[in-house]
Here is the input.
Amino acid sequence: MPDKKIKAVLFDLGETLLNFGKVNTTRLFRQGARLSYDFLKSCGQPVGSFNYYCWRNLIALRIRHWLSNITRKDFNALLLLRGLGTKKGVRLDRQQWRHFAWLWYEPLSKVGKAEPKTKETLTALKKLDLKLGIVSNTFVHSSSLEKHLEQLGILDFFTVRLYSYQFDFRKPDARIFKAAAERIGEILENILFVGDQIDRDVKAAAKTGMHAVLKAAYTNAGKKTPKGTWKINHLSELPGLIEKINAD
Here is the structure.
């Protein structure tokens, strides 16, 4: 019988490592549109009217998001926005395009917060000799997400970071969990997955053989914790829970 002690922990991003809560997406989108529009204008790029620029990008993103829910495959928002800009004659270098993508995400980054003592919790997990990683369903480019994590001082804790737009599949597809296990260098039975979504995160992870922990969030409020998984209210509970699981 294989040793099922936890040797690695994988985290979902939204409402797990970062708490965004219920947000006004249209308002945040418009703020990002303004920031990115002003940046292009400052670089002397052809942008046209703000309202046209804003609606053109919003409609394109919504269509792609709708299609991704049908195909169950996420898209790269940076490539989409860059493609739209290039067709209008925008010319930027690689670093400028990444900054452009960050400006779209920046208003949301100001909403997304880590729990108090997150850094101390991750430090405690590292002291337990655990490998740490991230597996997130997202169309936001890695450069923006990782800049956000770096601003919070927690990026370097995660040696493995997988974002669904980089694959032809996403959670709850077992392949993304298996890809993460391969990259982090542990078998599925030795990995604990922490997420806020019951079906996409904990049920899917448990089905592959991983240990699974449901993090309390508005996304699972009032729902029953699936059998065979644990539930925590705060990430700070993880070190003690893992020690208990490994002792048992």
About this structure: DSSP finds nine helices and six strands in the chain. Strands lie at 8-11, 131-136, 160-163, 191-195, 211-215, 230-232.
